[in-house]
From TrEMBL, chain A:
One of its GO terms (biological process) is transmembrane transport. It comes from Roseovarius nubinhibens (strain ATCC BAA-591 / DSM 15170 / ISM). InterPro entries: MetI-like, MetI-like_sf. Keywords: Cell membrane, Membrane, Transmembrane, Transmembrane helix, Transport. This is Thiamin ABC transporter membrane component.
TrEMBL record, chain B:
InterPro entries: SBP, ThiB, ThiB-like. This is Thiamine-binding periplasmic protein. Belongs to the bacterial solute-binding protein 1 family. Its main location: periplasm. PANTHER family: THIAMINE-BINDING PERIPLASMIC PROTEIN, THIAMINE-BINDING PERIPLASMIC PROTEIN-RELATED. The keyword Manganese does not apply. GO terms for biological process: thiamine transport. Residues 1-21 form the signal peptide. It is found in: Periplasm. GO terms for cellular component: outer membrane-bounded periplasmic space. Keywords: Periplasm, Signal, Transport. It comes from Roseovarius nubinhibens (strain ATCC BAA-591 / DSM 15170 / ISM). It holds the Pfam family SBP_bac_1.
Length: 526, 328
């Protein structure tokens, strides 16, 4: 069956997707080709690393998304003072550098943490955060905000008219769930699961630190070991390929499951909800929001408290690093938008048969960024660039590029569903009016996608701020980003200054996210 | 995209440290904490540039293991003239690359061991030790530690050089009994971290009684923070040594300058910078002696040490023993 005509072309998106896949697979191939001797075998230790990796990533994804559904539902139904600020703040763990987040978690849940101290008051033994449960706890802390935002967005993309109609027909509770919410979740949840799964798959420092010992070995650790201590590039490439294939398969399944039909076009009216007014429902919603806020905000306040003392008199180099990080974040954001928007359109054109497969390939190439080991990309780029230029002089552009690749999957998850709805709803009208190409993008897509574009851009900027990326592979003393500077302060015993710099990073990332996200939704409901 | 790259490249280039034409440039690859503003890098650079009439370009690459990997990756056409910051446990692997040239520099070392190596020059060293808070009754050896309910944080030998050092410490002290010691320690280990910073951070958060670090760690707290609350536990078996070395590459286009830099690294000027920036013992005690505060540090009675070749041969079996003992 022929694909339906569309007002915008998918070609730029296909080109962008090809470019992204070329960087990820090309760097992998480069590393593999540079290997001396045969690739190391996939030994018994690797199998157990693979099992642990899969187990912790699956548990983390299921729990993060499973908890995100009721939290997002509650947030979608309720309007209260400070809601926007709460949603913004709750997103903060996602953009924290790993080591800062882990120390924040430990301050609350650790052996000497706040909860253990309270338990101690009652003569109870301290909590133990170290083990599989600790790894999953940390991954839920880092990823619940993202999952909540993705699912909340699904709720917000249901046209306001559907809720209006539902209210007129007296549809509430179970019927509302069955007719509107469940079909929406069926479209959004598989994608969210795939993103969190892929993200946890490449976890290394979190899994090891909170895993409590070598039982908690992930594939990414094996890749690091192969790269550094063993210098076995073939093995590093092989292990990295395993990660890519795992993510690829999961993502393919998720994208197939999540490709149901949308709700059709609405009139872009602000959403108002009439359902869920009973005292019990209000109480339940308040409970979910309160629990999630407590879980996410307690470790964050630990980060803030630890950083306050160090914020005073931060060394000048930290401020310069902050400026460098802002520049890197800006470049990553522009890069992501240039690539993600056409890719989202290409994926949204969809259709059946060949068109559908192409669309999924586009989405898949975007997701690969999550599964690719930054070490492999960095090393591959290093090998490729050496004959042409001094890689160290290119440290910042390469960092911006790699950060963009890591943020791309999130941007695609945010832009994709909305682009699909807009094309499905307005595409025919656009075609019949002769509104195609750039004019369709400017007059129809852009205004309808502004909130999503703002969210995606804000998230990318914040992520890029906090991501250590590949700078440690390339940096010279003068071009340290803020996350690298935090590690340097810690490496020089200056834990208090490091905590201060981490607080600065948190504040900058949140401000950046807030400003950009706000810019996209200045007219939308609070 | 290209424009952004160029713009960012300009930003990088506009920062201080721009190269002046005609001045010879010496590129030194080292680990990241050496080049940081709080490490020895800036002072070493200033002191060396005073006399060399050159531009010293320090490049920081993560840690010692990643540093060696970078040198191997670049091979014979490396940008680097000198590599600084590999420890003796990785020295055999470094020598095996065949990339290093004899340095021809000699010095009167104050190391607990005799030093003879044509390619690698030691510039500082330290003893691994478990650091704890003053007042904590620390166990006196590994057996006592294993029997106590003392909690420790250590680094993973697969991703961290101190972690690898601990592996050699137990192995050199206990030989074939090492696996039993590790099994005994398994319930004392709160967790194993990727690197030193994570472990030390967890210790300062109060997650463990002791953390694997150096006997010189309390010196930082004492001298830089005027805080005498940290101490290193003295173990009766002796303490394993970490010796950090530098070497020059055969492919260097500035061999004379490289040699001059290596000689500078064991000179009084450089050696007096290292103790209070890298927080390690200098390889040659400066004329003015060690900084005040170092006399308070724990003095091991016995130095444990494997030569580079012994360490290389033991790495895989010791790692397997460690994994097996702790994975149960």
């Amino acid at each position: 069956m022929a694909d339906r005509a569309q007002p915008v072309s998918g070609t730029p998106g296909l080109v962008a997707a090809f470019g992204v896949a070329a960087v990820i697979l090309g760097t992998l191939l480069t590393v593999a080709l540079r290997a001396e001797g045969g690739a190391g075998l996939f030994g018994p230790a690797d199998w157990s690393a693979l099992r642990f990796t899969l187990l912790q990533a699956s548990l983390s994804a299921l729990l993060s998304v499973g908890l995100a559904v009721p939290v997002a539902r509650a947030l979608a139904r309720r309007r209260f003072r400070g809601r926007a600020a709460l949603i913004g703040l709750m997103g903060a763990p996602f953009i924290l550098p790993v080591i800062v987040g882990v120390l924040g978690l430990v301050t609350v849940f650790g052996r000497g943490g706040w909860i253990s101290q309270i338990l101690g008051q009652f003569g109870l033994p301290p909590l133990s955060i170290y083990g599989l449960h600790g790894v999953v706890l940390a991954h839920v802390f880092f990823n619940l905000p993202l999952a909540t935002r993705l699912i909340l967005q699904g709720w917000q993309e249901v046209p306001g008219e559907r809720f209006r109609l539902a209210a007129q027909l007296g549809i509430e509770g179970w019927s509302m769930w069955r007719l509107i919410e469940l079909p929406m979740l069926m479209r959004v949840v598989p994608g969210a699961l795939a993103v969190v799964f892929a993200l946890c798959l490449t976890s290394f420092a979190v899994a090891l630190t909170l895993g409590g010992g070598p039982r908690a070995t992930t594939i990414e650790l094996a890749i690091y070991q192969a790269f550094t201590f063993d210098f076995d590039l073939g093995r590093a490439a092989l292990l990295s390929l395993v990660q890519l294939v795992l993510t690829g398969v999961t993502a393919w399944v998720a994208l197939r499951l999540g490709s149901g039909e949308g709700f059709g076009a609405g009139l872009d009216r602000a959403i108002r909800r009439w359902d869920g007014q009973g005292a019990l429902r209000r109480g339940l919603d308040a409970g979910w929001i309160g629990l999630a806020a407590l879980f996410l905000l307690l470790p964050l306040s630990a980060v803030v408290l630890a950083g306050l003392a160090g914020m005073i008199g931060l060394p000048g180099q930290v401020w310069r690093s902050a400026a460098i990080s802002l520049a890197v974040a800006g470049a990553s954001t522009v890069l992501v938008l240039i690539v993600a928007l056409p890719m989202a359109i290409a994926a949204a054109r969809g259709g059946r048969g060949r068109g559908g497969i192409l669309a999924r390939m586009v989405e898949l190439s975007g997701l690969l960024g999550l599964a690719a080991s930054p070490l492999v990309i960095g090393t591959g780029l290093f090998i490729l660039m050496r004959p042409l230029t001094d890689p160290i002089a290119m440290a910042l552009p390469v960092t911006a590029l790699v950060n963009a690749l890591m943020a791309l999957p999130f941007a695609l998850r945010i832009l994709g569903p909305r682009a699909r709805d807009v094309l499905a709803g307005e595409g025919r009208l656009g075609l019949s009016l002769g509104l195609t190409g750039g004019r369709f993008v400017r007059l129809v897509l852009w205004p309808r996608m502004r909130p999503q574009i703002g969210f995606a851009a804000g998230l990318t900027a914040a992520l890029s701020m906090g991501d250590l990326g590949v700078i440690a592979l390339f940096a010279d003393p003068d071009t340290a980003t803020l996350p690298l500077q935090i590690y340097r302060l810690m490496g020089a015993y200056r834990m208090e200054s490091a905590a201060g710099a981490a607080l600065l990073l948190l504040l900058l990332s949140l401000a950046l996210f807030y400003i950009i996200d706000r810019g996209g939704r200045y007219h939308a409901e609070a | 995209m290209k424009k952004i790259a160029i713009a960012l490249g300009c930003l990088g280039g506009a920062l201080p440290g721009a190269v002046i034409a005609d001045t010879p440039e010496l590129t030194v690859y080292t680990y990241d904490s050496f080049v940081s503003d709080w490490g020895p890098g800036p002072k070493i650079e200033a002191a060396f540039e005073e006399s060399c009439g050159c531009d010293l370009n320090l490049v920081g690459i993560e840690d010692g293991a990643a540093l060696l990997a970078r040198v191997r990756l670049e091979g014979a056409h490396s940008e680097a003239d000198v590599v600084l910051g590999i420890d003796t446990n990785l020295m055999a692997a470094a020598a095996e690359t065949g990339l290093f040239a004899p340095h021809e520099v000699s010095a009167e070392y104050d190391l607990p061991i005799a030093w003879e190596d044509a390619s690698f020059l030691p510039y500082d060293w330290g003893y691994f030790a478990f650091v704890h808070n003053e007042g904590f009754a620390a166990p006196g050896d590994f057996r006592a530690l294993a029997e106590s309910d003392t909690k420790i944080v250590i680094q993973d030998p697969r991703s961290s050089t101190p972690g690898l050092g601990l592996l050699y410490w137990v192995k050199s002290a206990y030989g074939d009994e090492a696996p039993a010691i590790w099994q005994g320690l398994s319930d004392n280990i709160v967790t194993v971290t990727k690197g030193w910073s994570e472990a030390y951070g967890l210790f300062l958060e109060g997650e463990a009684d002791m953390v694997l670090s150096y006997t010189t760690s309390p010196a930082y707290h004492l001298i830089a923070e005027e805080d005498a609350s940290k101490a290193a536990a003295l173990f009766d078996e002796g303490h394993y040594m970490q010796v950090e070395v530098a070497g020059m590459l055969k492919g260097s286009d500035q061999p004379d300058l490289a040699r001059q830099f290596l000689a500078f690294m064991v000179s009084d000027a450089a050696q007096s910078i290292l103790p209070t920036t890298n927080w390690m013992y200098p390889a040659v005690t400066p004329e003015a002696g060690l900084p005040k505060g170092f006399e308070t540090l724990t003095q091991p009675e016995k130095a444990l040490f494997y030569t580079a070749d012994e360490a290389e041969a033991l790495r895989k079996p010791a790692l397997d023993e460690w994994l097996t003992a702790l994975s149960r």
